[in-house]
């Protein structure tokens, strides 16, 4: 391969990567969340990096999520290599509804969002418990959530 072919292959790969990231962002509902909750600033709070979750259409975000908690809300971001089409989000607590659930042996918490009602995020129950502890009194328990199981 010569330099021109390598450059063309690299550009094709980059374009394909960005296209796939945007496609995942669209299918998962991240784009819908970003319309209401895009966060451009620096997040200050407790974070858990390289976490996994599921969003609508069973879109799995495996080990690429950063989950953050502060008194203002729930912070969500993807690993920088997957950031195209999935900008960081800061969702105010008053727009977050957590609901514990169970599928076979997997306990999870499903988060729903007031300004994007068709979108959900499922995180492991153990991560949600750590999040709840970090959020303290900010955690939104007043929306019908039965906590814990």
Please specify the SSE layout and strand pairing:
Layout: H1 3-28, H2 30-37, E1 46-55, E2 59-70, E3 73-78, E4 89-92, E5 96-103, E6 106-113, E7 116-124, H3 125-135
Antiparallel strand pairs: 1-2, 1-7, 2-3, 3-4, 5-6, 6-7
Rg measurement, Å: 17 Å
Distance between the termini: 59 Å
Q: CATH superfamily, called what?
A: Pleckstrin-homology domain (PH domain)/Phosphotyrosine-binding domain (PTB)
Question: Approximately how much beta-strand content do the residues carry?
Answer: 35-45%
**Tally of structural domains:** 1
Q: Considering DSSP H and I runs of 4 or more, what fraction of the residues is helical?
A: 25-40%
Largest sheet: 7 strands, antiparallel
Please give the CATH class.
Mainly Beta
Mean pLDDT: 92
Shape: elongated
Give the name of the CATH architecture: Roll
Helix/strand structural class: alpha+beta
Which series of helices and strands comes N to C?
HHEEEEEEEH
DSSP strand tally: 7
How many helices does DSSP assign? Answer: 3
Main-sheet strand order equals 4-3-2-1-7-6-5
Question: Can you tell me the CATH topology?
Answer: PH-domain like
């Amino acid at each position: 391969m010569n330099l021109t072919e390598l450059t063309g292959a690299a550009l094709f790969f980059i374009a394909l990567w960005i296209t796939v990231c945007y496609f995942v962002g669209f299918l998962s509902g991240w784009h819908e969340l970003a319309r209401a909750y895009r966060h451009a600033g620096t997040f200050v709070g407790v974070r858990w990096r390289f976490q996994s979750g599921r969003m609508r259409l069973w879109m799995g975000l495996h080990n690429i999520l950063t989950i953050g908690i502060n008194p203002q809300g729930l912070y969500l971001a993807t690993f920088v290599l997957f950031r195209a089409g999935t900008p960081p989000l800061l969702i105010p607590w008053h727009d977050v509804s957590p609901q514990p659930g169970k599928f076979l042996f997997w306990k999870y918490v499903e988060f729903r969002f007031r300004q994007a009602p068709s979108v959900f995020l499922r995180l492991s129950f153990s991560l949600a418990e750590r999040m709840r502890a970090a959020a303290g009194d900010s955690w939104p328990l007043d929306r019908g959530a039965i906590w814990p199981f």
